[in-house]
Structure formats: C-alpha cells, structure tokens
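Students often ask what a holo structure prediction actually looks like on paper. The answer is less mysterious than it sounds. You provide the chain, you provide the ligand, and the output is a string of discrete structure tokens encoding the 3D arrangement of the protein together with 2-phosphoglycolic acid.
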Amino acid sequence: MRKHIVAGNWKMNLNADESQALIEALKTKKLSSDVRVAIATPAVHLAAAVNLTSGTKIDVSAQNMHQATSGAYTGEISASMLKSIGVNTTLLGHSERRAYFHETDALLAEKVNTALENGMEIIFCFGEELDERKSGSHFDVVSSQLRNALFNFDASQWSQIVLAYEPVWAIGTGETASPAQAQEMHAHIRSVLTAQYDDALAQSVSILYGGSVKPANAQEIFAQPDVDGGLIGGASLNADDFAAIVNAF
Ligand code: PGA
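The corresponding structure tokens follow.
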C-alpha cells in the first residue's frame, strides 16, 4: 500500500549547530502518525542526525550517493558508507544534481541499481524544465526520465522506490504547480507505470510532489488523489513550517 510521506531536502544549508537545533525543534512538534517523515541533511550531518532522531518517527536520508561501491572517487560517498551509519534512504536525481553536476538518466540508472543492490530506499526525483512545460512536452519528458532511469528494474524492486515529481520551474521559485497540474502529472506517472508494469504496481508506488510547497498550499496539493506527499526544500528549514506541512494531510 502506498504511504503518505513528507521529506525535507535541506540542500547545502545549515552548519552543525543549526542542524542540531532544527532537529531538536522538530522533535518538539506533534507529527501526524499517518505520515512518514524524513529529512535529507547534508552528508556531513548525517551521522549526527541519525543519533539525534533515534527513537523518533523522523528518518534520515542522504541527498546523493555514488554509483560505485568503493574506490578512487575522491569526495564521494558510497551506499555501504551510508548504511554503516544507519542511513537507509537517499534522494537521487534531484534537478540540481542534474543541472549542476551533469547527472544523466544513464548515470542515475547506475546509481539506482547500486542503491537497490545495497538494500537502500530511493526517493527518485525528476520533472520538466519551464521551456518543456511551455512547449507542451512535459508528459513525454517525464515519461522518458522514468523509462531511462527506472524501467530496467523488476517490479519486486519497486518496493524500494519512491517517486518525487518536481517541475524544475517550481523549485525554489515560489511558483507552485497548481493542485490540478500536480494531479494531472501524477495521474500520468501512474498510467506510465501501469503500461510498463501493471496497475497493482502503479497503485503501490508513493508519488511525492515537490516545488515551493509551503504550509499555505500543502493541504490543497496533498488532497489530490494521486499525490502521496511532498519533497520540501526551503520550508523544511523551519520546524514550524515543516511540521505544518507534515500535518497538512
Ligand atoms: P523548494 O525545493 O521546496 O524550495 O521549492 C524543493 C526541492 O528542491 O526538493
């Protein structure tokens, strides 16, 4: 059964003290028992975040990982390193990784494979750019992002995959896809999954929406039938706002 999930993507924000303070503040909030909550902290804070959230309902996720299992990749972090500190989830394919670090669908397919082989859960991010939305190719773009990175995997492996649709034009811009636009794309994603696999799989995958989700718009977005939660950037850096979004279901 698909779950409601709200994940915070802290990106490259907060030093160690600030990270600890935000987690301590989040721990004081009442968070809906029906919603899975995760925070994707910068890599340098992951181990501390795992300790600070131990015994709470907050899971800790990485923001990225390398496709190789180990070796001469200076500055990189492997799946087994993440697992060894208790991090079992990672974002992959965020639009900032695609845009600034040239992550392609083919590379992401390798990363997903490595994460799956290591028993990790993946929050796989994808979405169209503004010009693709304007030219009307957004459905095709999203279909091909999914096909190229994920459709080589068996149906059984999809229990480890969460999807996060994030239209690039809505990330950090204050511009949100309307609830109808989000629903339309999420329904499209589910239909693509049905065509590739089957309806049971399509109905079992959680599909999050990301892009300028705030306390003021979360309820309307989460009320859409094919929206199972959110990936939250800016608003996840404020405990009150993040808790309000978690509790918007
Ligand atoms: P935003 O970021 O909520 O600040 O738009 C979302 C994301 O990049 O995951």
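Strands lie at 4-9, 35-40, 58-62, 89-92, 121-126, 161-165, 207-210, 229-232.
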